[in-house]
Design a protein that fits this description.
It contains no helices and 16 strands. By secondary structure, it is mostly beta strands. The chain has a 16-stranded parallel β-sheet that branches.
């Protein structure tokens, strides 16, 4: 297991280029992957890394872009995913049953997000800041067991499957149904045919 830091040293934006990593090798099984404030080259190629189960995946102060709307960065993390950067990011975690914590993302504009996220088996999404789109684009699907919000903005498209959502702050907009909603703060808005069978708390729901 190694600590692999993206440097972008080869200047080709390719995740699969060994010279772009501090270890001189493309991250492999159980390696912990980091995108830091020290190196901000965009990742634009070699985007399908779903065949390698890395360790943790951390974005810490990184301002570069990860993937694009037409090509998500596909990874298979075996450990926690932490996002605290300001670069526009598109991440597809495949079927990884892990926790994702989001502290900061790129600034969002109306109808857009700073982090676009896909995962068909996500355990927990914890949002304290930033702007996240979960299965937000047309035709996308994703599933999450637990969403915890204390800040930031979360937008969910109509292809989401959401089990339990707890909001203490921030703003959540969803076009997908929620099995159990615990709203104690922040703003929650449902659209379209989204249903909420169980609603607890005294927060603001629209």
């Amino acid at each position: 297991m190694a600590t692999a830091i993206w440097t972008g040293g080869a200047s080709d934006g390719n995740y699969s280029t060994a010279a772009n990593w501090s270890t001189g090798a493309v991250p492999t099984t159980s390696d912990n992957v980091y995108f830091t404030a020290d190196y901000n080259a965009d990742v634009t190629a070699g985007l399908n890394q779903s065949g390698v189960t890395i360790g943790t995946f951390t974005v810490d102060g990184y301002t570069g872009k990860l993937g694009s709307k037409s090509g998500y960065l596909q990874i298979d993390p075996g450990g926690a995913v932490e996002i605290n950067g300001t670069g526009l990011s598109y991440l597809d975690l495949g079927n990884a049953n892990v926790s994702v914590t989001v502290t900061n993302t790129a600034r969002s504009s109306a109808g857009n997000a700073g982090l676009y996220l896909l995962d068909s088996n996500l355990s927990t999404l914890a949002l304290t800041g930033g702007s996240v789109g979960f299965a937000l684009n047309a035709g996308e699907t994703s599933t999450v067991g637990i969403i915890k919000m204390t800040g930031g903005t979360l937008s969910v498209g109509d292809g989401g499957t959401l089990s339990t959502v707890t909001t203490l702050g921030g703003t959540m907009n969803t076009s997908s149904s929620v099995v159990t909603l615990n709203i104690y703060g922040g703003v929650f808005t449902s659209a379209g045919s989204a249903a909420i069978p169980t609603l607890n708390g005294d927060g603001r729901s629209e």
